[in-house]
Design a protein that fits this description.
Strand content of chain A: 5-15%
Order of helices and strands of chain B: HHHHHHEEEEEEEEHHHHHHH
Strand order of the largest sheet of chain A: 1-4-5-8
Structural class of chain B: alpha+beta
Oligomer: heterodimer
Number of strands of chain A: 10
Number of strands of chain B: 8
Largest sheet of chain A: 4 strands, mixed
Helix content of chain B: 40-55%
Structural class of chain A: alpha+beta
Helix content of chain A: 40-55%
Largest interface: A-B, 43 and 48 residues
Strand content of chain B: 15-25%
Number of helices of chain A: 10
Strand order of the largest sheet of chain B: 1-4-5-8
Distance between the termini of chain B: 46 Å
Number of helices of chain B: 13
Radius of gyration of chain B: 21 Å
Order of helices and strands of chain A: HHHHHEEEEEEEEHEEHHHH
Radius of gyration of chain A: 20 Å
Chain lengths: 339, 376
């Protein structure tokens, strides 16, 4: 499954960190393609996904790579794989997602993570006459950071986290839409895509959580009140220890989602990562005090990113409900994480 | 013997002995009765060989990975048999004796495995709870023997125990954790008094121990003189390995029982969020315990990471049995049959999960200081 040594893994992450820091959003898809990340995704996803998404989380950067992760099973189901089996580029396909709140039926709008790069073609999974459908929507390069206000099917969204480059996908009635596949194959491919997307988001949220905990821990060591570092007070220690416990659980769940891949371990990874990122955000916010409440401090960028990523493909609380319903419907306690 | 083969073969054996095992699913309601019946379960499992796997051959075992012991308790719990008390005791105390006092283990372990005797853990004192390193029970070197004076408290099942792993101060109070020695003491030694304490569950599951001029032979030191803290830390880490695995296996089983009960209730929807959260908590506990158990099996001593396991355990266990109050309130609050008593025992015992073996507050201090590097 994963064939990397610890040293190679570190080098990969360091390279990705430089790449994300050194390119602006529009050039990032081409830079990731040139780096060979799509090929690594195809050959060794258990290395490619944690390395890129944890780095994105740690550095609060974004790329459209999330689409490549989710697109793979959909492209296969739709017969849309490139000739010769070459891995598609990071910016080639954009996967349309249910919007925030859709897991609890509060929204019907659909979105995608464009991350500031132009959208070429969208993959849209929907329902028609009770059958799952996979459609390709030509967006012709709309939706990038400069592409607001056009007449295409994609419009940029500012929202709580403008840097993520979320786009809203709207049905304008007559864009170039092509049905690529329908039926059970699409249902199965979508389940696979969701599991893959949840694994990637879990890693990104773990990275974000680690970054927030590091900001708060550094502050707790450096900031003195009452003649000593505030990190010496138990009330502060315990908040951050709780965050560490949750992040540690989330990291273990993200790892297990590769060791024992499947829809349930992917759901649990996303659930724990969302939970840990939200809890860490709350604890770090309190420990950072007034400094963390300023625009100048980088903390709010993490909070904004965590709120949106938690909401994609099911928030921690939505997934908890989904899991609870599954358990109560079946009456079975799944036998995971066996010795 | 690999884990999968062991699991399959033990499963077949249990199916073939369903009638023999049935009475272990409905235990007597009193602690003495439970202890006696679970002792019989241990002997049954020993005689059939199952309990000997995962322990060294020279000590009466059949060899193999210690993880086999985890599979055994897991399969027992899945079949509805609560893990025998003695399993917990064995898992916590025996590995330390094997590791730090092989000469004692050679004669003391076989009767423990056979279920002929029980052991207890003399750690906490009235003035040394969370601050264990301030313990005062004193062992004085008298040349050929140690003379022991002092008091212990919260010692589980001491009234049934033949031996005690006893932490004693052999150095000065100022030496704190460096002046502690672990001794292997016979509970029938003159001068040992056991006074059972009734827990809030109603059971006398722990006791106060008094030591008045108790004489202990010099060859009963576990580890080095003054090296008792290493033994202590190892014992506590064993609580995060096989014992935690046993406990989560039982929690897994009880979650299944509560799901079944919730499905039978008119409005199962109120249990949805609880069911999802509880399973997620249990899953995190399993992942953490499995890693610690595997590290112990590989001969490593888990460090501060094991504090995370303990916090996850307390959270999962209390959340699970908080659910019992909502889902089976009538049985838990007003029932008097064996099933109702088991719910009550589980509920009350779960309250202690954030207290025993190092409180959640102490564990958070360890996480903050040793894993996050925050100042003391």
């Amino acid at each position: 499954m994963s064939g990397m040594e610890a040293g190679e893994r570190e080098m990969l992450r360091a390279s990705l960190r430089r790449l994300l820091a050194g390119t602006d959003a529009v050039k990032r898809p081409a830079a990731l393609d040139e780096f060979g990340w799509p090929d690594l995704l195809a050959s060794d996803p258990a290395e490619a996904v944690p390395a890129l998404f944890e780095t994105q989380g740690e550095t609060v950067t974004a790329s459209p790579a999330f689409n490549a992760v989710m697109a793979a099973p959909l492209l296969a189901a739709g017969g849309l794989d490139a000739a010769g089996g070459a891995a598609p580029g990071v910016g080639d396909w954009t996967v349309v997602l249910p919007g925030p709140g859709s897991g609890s039926g509060r929204s019907g709008a659909v979105y995608a993570v464009a991350a500031g790069a132009p959208v070429q073609r969208c993959l849209v999974v929907g329902q028609h006459d009770g059958r799952a459908t996979l459609a390709v929507v030509d967006a012709a390069g709309s939706g990038g950071s400069a592409g607001r206000g056009g007449s295409g099917p994609v419009e940029a969204v500012e929202g709580v986290d403008p840097e993520l480059g979320l786009v809203r996908v709207v049905d304008r009635g007559s864009p170039a839409v092509r049905l690529a596949a329908q039926g059970d194959a699409v249902t199965a491919a979508w389940a696979e895509a969701v599991a893959a997307g949840r694994r990637a988001l879990a890693h990104e949220l773990c990275g974000l959580g680690r970054a927030m905990l590091a900001l708060a821990t550094d502050h707790a060591r450096a900031r003195h009140q009452f003649g000593r570092p505030i990190g010496g007070f138990q009330a502060v220690k315990h908040r951050l220890a709780e965050a560490k416990v949750a992040l540690s659980a989330a990291e273990a769940a993200a790892g297990e989602a590769w060791a024992d891949p499947g829809p349930l371990t992917a759901l649990l990874a996303k659930l724990w990562a969302g939970r840990a990122a939200r809890l860490t955000g709350k604890q770090a916010q309190q420990v950072l005090g007034g400094m963390g409440f300023t625009w100048e401090h980088p903390f709010h960028r993490h909070v904004r990113r965590a709120l949106v990523l938690d909401s994609l493909l099911g928030s921690a609380s939505e997934l908890g409900h989904e899991l609870g319903r599954t358990l109560l419907d079946s009456g079975e306690v799944p036998d995971l994480a066996r010795l | 013997m690999d884990l999968a083969t062991f699991r399959a073969e033990f499963g077949r054996w249990m199916a073939g002995h369903a009638a023999d095992l049935d009475r272990f699913r409905r235990l007597p309601t009193d602690l003495d009765g439970q202890f006696a019946v679970l002792g019989e379960l241990q002997r049954l499992l020993f005689d059939a060989g199952w309990l000997r796997w995962g322990w060294p051959e020279e000590l009466g075992g059949l060899g193999g990975s210690s993880l086999l012991r985890g599979v055994l308790s897991e399969e027992l719990a899945a079949a509805g048999c609560p893990p025998p008390f003695s399993f917990g005791m064995m898992e916590v105390l025996a590995p330390a004796v094997v590791r730090f006092a092989p000469a004692i283990a050679a004669w003391a372990l076989p009767p423990l495995l056979r279920g002929e005797e029980a052991w207890c853990q003399g750690f906490s004192e009235p003035e040394a709870g969370s601050d264990l390193a301030s313990l005062r029970l004193r062992a004085v070197d008298e040349g050929d023997t140690w003379r022991v004076n002092g008091q212990k408290v919260w010692t589980s099942w001491a009234q049934y125990a033949r031996r005690c792993i006893l932490l004693a101060r052999t150095g000065t109070a100022e030496e704190a954790h460096r002046g502690i020695t672990a001794l292997f003491v016979d509970m029938d030694s003159p001068g040992v008094t056991v006074r059972p304490l009734r827990a809030m569950s109603g059971d006398a599951e722990f006791a106060e121990l008094f030591f008045d001029d108790v004489v202990v032979p010099k060859d009963r030191v576990i580890g080095a003189v003054g090296g008792g803290w290493v033994v202590t830390m190892y014992v506590l880490s064993c609580e995060r390995g096989a014992v935690a695995w046993q406990r989560q296996a039982w929690m897994h089983r009880r979650l299944g029982d509560l799901l079944a009960a919730a499905r039978a209730n008119a409005d199962a929807s109120s249990a949805v969020a609880w069911a999802g959260d509880t399973f997620a908590n249990l899953y995190a506990l399993r992942l953490a315990s499995r890693r610690t158990f595997q590290r112990l099996d590989a001969g490593e001593i888990p460090g501060p990471d094991a504090s995370i396991d303990k916090i996850l355990m307390a959270t999962a266990e209390q959340g699970l049995f908080d659910g019992a109050v909502e889902i089976v309130p009538e049985a838990l609050l007003t029932g008097d049959d064996a099933a109702a008593r088991t719910w009550r025992t589980d509920y009350f015992y779960s309250r202690a999960a954030s207290i025993y073996g190092g409180t959640s507050e102490i564990q958070r201090n360890i996480v903050a200081e040793h894993l996050l590097g925050l100042p003391r």
